[in-house]
């Protein structure tokens, strides 16, 4: 019987393949090495192929799509319920094959090379930002051991620390002064790396029409706009803006039963980096809204009614829906836009 569905358990070198026919009956269990995967699938008739969205998944998805296969990526948490008994490569491949055939299964959009490239810049920048913050905190901590306290804000490190190190009246040893200078040089290097990567991201942003459109939304700059454009790709993968907001984890978790709805904090599903960018952007919009005090505005009423953090998440949710509408309908941002309910 012909294989119609295949599940692949990806790995670095050894891949497990599970194939089933149109009735779901297993007819193939095979282990492949990395260099055998393309040869094996090039000799297979086109079929529905599923794999977990993990390291290398987008690369293999593009490879197999080029061979004519219909490839679907599944989030690992959606595969786990289909794993029978003990976990191993064979059971995982079978679970993926079962999950990909479910009619209500949700899939991860496959990214192209350009999307992955710009997102790599974002991930590298994020790593340097974390390292820079850690280095600044280390310098603060070491100086605090000697009774030297630096004001809040990373900018004060570069301003105040060199003055303290050069102050001969302070009871600091030569070894400690040399150490702090070395840490300061490392901090400057990290700062330079962040600036260079930001410049590359902004260059990509300038060449992307859709990313420039998203920048017009309040609370979104080049970093957020480029990250959203590259991550979402084709927004038509989402039925509506609510799905995109839920995919980003900007909706409440539920613990409802017996007809009683219980809403908890936000779900925090999806990409934490995108969610963080949207929420930080929302905080900046809220700060400006408090300054203007437009009493008739939706946001100002929300701020007065709810906690500032709740308001920031609500505004980030609304921004995500606006992004979906702009990407799907190919529109420019219009702050006074009202949907035509008759056409919905």
UniProtKB/TrEMBL annotation:
Q: Which residues form the Transposase IS116/IS110/IS902 C-terminal domain?
A: 212-295
Question: Looking at the keywords, is Repeat present?
Answer: no
Q: Which regions form coiled coils?
A: 180-207
- Judging by the UniProt lineage, the source's domain of life is Bacteria
Q: Which UniProt keywords apply?
A: Coiled coil
Give yes or no: UniProt keyword Plastid: no
UniProt xrefs under PANTHER family: PUTATIVE TRANSPOSASE FOR IS117-RELATED, TRANSPOSASE FOR INSERTION SEQUENCE ELEMENT IS1111A
Entry protein name: IS110 family transposase
Native source organism of the sequence: Robbsia betulipollinis
